[in-house]
């Protein structure tokens, strides 16, 4: 897209913000598309994951109004990128106490498609991120299985597109790609400022004690496994113990031990004879105790979370809790 189509003040771009844009950053190698939808970024702490179960479920499901959504889980809780209308709905039904977000700050998603040459160049995304930051554009970067996405504030969209359309950035990226087979450059110049944490400590990279896998699931199968995905995000052993009250957490058995006990219970013993349950004369066999779903599983299954959530109970996927 030529720069003269954008206008000095970005007014032409602002008038077209609701339409899809295609920008050839480096034609044939780096192409950019502005995805439809307006997005809000939110966060729910680990202690409030059950209360935020409905909005997490919505983030895990595809929306016809949005082309992108994000869910990231770490030790501090869950970070979400959801379509603005869903964030507004979560706020209106009373999830504001569980989900920290600013509904007045909306983001747009920029999808980058890399050709084979660009994809093989280390740091190609970093060059584009630096160009955006140099022009005063704040970004959130998401790198997934086969795509790159930049989130930019809605008011910065025109400036971001001007940056991606600039001849200067194109020349820089073409130069980087032309030297892709050369050794990486040396350490930064002494004039480059060091990065520091609060308290005067240097920033350090810390290796997490985890083995991670990257998987991609096709859209048409996503709804079929949404409940399983929700449990993977919210109900592994680590988070299960954190969500339980202290007394219950101390008495809870690890998941592996429970599985071992269950397995042992079904192993046949040739020397033992089965003993029928004791039943009083004339009475029916005892019924098994009712199965009680935990709050998050109940919400995912379509029932209200036990114990309640701010603003009401849960609902079926796609509907908010009732006030």
Automatic annotation (TrEMBL):
Residues 294-303 have a biased composition (Low complexity). Residues 304-317 have a biased composition (Gly residues). Residues 107-164 form the CASTOR ACT domain. Residues 266-323 are annotated as: Disordered. It comes from the Eukaryota. InterPro entries: ACT-like_dom_sf (IPR045865), CASTOR_ACT_dom (IPR027795). This is CASTOR ACT domain-containing protein. It comes from Phaeomonas parva.
């Amino acid at each position: 897209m030529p720069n003269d189509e954008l206008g000095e003040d970005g007014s032409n771009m602002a008038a077209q913000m609701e339409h899809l844009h295609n920008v050839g950053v480096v034609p044939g190698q780096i192409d950019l598309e502005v995805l439809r939808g307006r997005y809000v970024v939110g966060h729910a702490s680990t202690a409030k994951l059950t209360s935020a179960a409905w909005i997490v479920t919505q983030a895990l499901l595809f929306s016809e109004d949005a082309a992108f959504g994000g869910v990231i889980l770490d030790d501090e809780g869950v970070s979400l990128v959801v379509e603005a209308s869903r964030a507004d709905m979560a706020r209106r039904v009373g999830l504001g106490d569980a989900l920290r977000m600013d509904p007045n700050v909306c983001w747009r998603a920029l999808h980058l498609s890399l050709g084979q040459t660009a994809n093989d160049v280390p740091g190609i995304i970093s060059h584009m991120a630096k160009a955006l930051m140099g022009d005063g554009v704040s970004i959130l970067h998401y790198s997934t299985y086969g795509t790159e996405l930049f989130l930019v504030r809605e008011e910065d969209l025109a400036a971001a597109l001007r940056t991606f359309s600039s001849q200067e950035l194109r020349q820089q990226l073409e130069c980087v790609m032309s030297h892709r087979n050369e050794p990486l450059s040396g350490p930064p110049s002494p004039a480059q400022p060091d990065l520091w944490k609060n308290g005067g400590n240097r920033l350090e990279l810390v290796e997490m004690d985890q083995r991670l896998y990257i998987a991609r699931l096709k859209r048409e199968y996503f709804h079929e496994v949404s409940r399983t995905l929700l449990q993977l995000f919210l109900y592994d052993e680590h988070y299960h113990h954190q969500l339980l009250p202290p007394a219950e957490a101390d008495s809870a058995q690890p998941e592996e031990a429970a599985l071992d006990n269950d397995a042992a219970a079904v192993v046949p013993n040739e020397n033992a004879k089965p003993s029928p349950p004791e039943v009083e004369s004339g009475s029916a066999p005892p019924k098994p105790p009712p199965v009680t779903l935990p709050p998050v599983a109940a919400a995912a299954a379509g029932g209200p979370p036990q114990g309640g959530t701010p603003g009401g109970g849960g609902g079926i996927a796609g509907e908010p809790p009732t006030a």
